[in-house]
């Protein structure tokens, strides 16, 4: 049976969604892995989103907390808000109390990817503070580390992402993930899914 890898994200303007799509491609490139995209529920009204200039949501299905229990591994993606995960993702985690009570997610591998507005806007603090959510659920945090190779040391061009996970800079909203950032996202999906598959096989 294929290992189920869920890529669960929140994306207001599409930057995190772009990373999620690339992560799914990387995850799906691993034999014996079934990768699926999910969005977390929106907490803002259509009126507020309209005033913020947010585009319409995509057709990616909206996840419920109980859906998480079906996954063999989960990658969570979100934009930063003042160096931490956005309120929509935090609200979703806050709704997982039932899973926490029964430790339904304990032992499952988990990864993180993210978007920030600026270079100093939380590329490390955002995933670092998000790890607390995984810890209370007993999940196994799987960072990218430096497995992406030489491109982790890119200095000639602006590049987001870190050993914690893949990332991008949104800037004023007009900057989109670069080729290297998308390559790291693909690599994260591939690397993470290989580990999720091995863990599922070892427990079979």
UniProtKB/TrEMBL annotation:
Q: Which residues form a coiled coil?
A: none
Enumerate the GO terms in the molecular function aspect: FMN binding; NAD(P)H dehydrogenase (quinone) activity
Please list the cofactors this protein needs.
Answer: FMN
For this record, an example GO cellular component is: membrane
UniProt superkingdom:
Eukaryota
Q: Where are the transmembrane segments?
A: none
The family database entries (InterPro entries) matched by this protein are listed as: Flavodoxin/NO_synth, Flavoprotein-like_sf, Flavoprotein_WrbA-like, FMN_Rdtase-like_dom
All residue ranges annotated as the Flavodoxin-like domain in the record: 5-192
Q: What is its EC number?
A: 1.6.5.2
- Which reactions are catalysed by this chain? a quinone + NADH + H(+) = a quinol + NAD(+); a quinone + NADPH + H(+) = a quinol + NADP(+)
Q: Which family does it belong to?
A: Belongs to the WrbA family.
Name recorded for this polypeptide: NAD(P)H dehydrogenase (quinone)
What is the organism field in this record?
Answer: Rhynchospora pubera
- Lineage of origin: Eukaryota, Viridiplantae, Streptophyta, Embryophyta, Tracheophyta
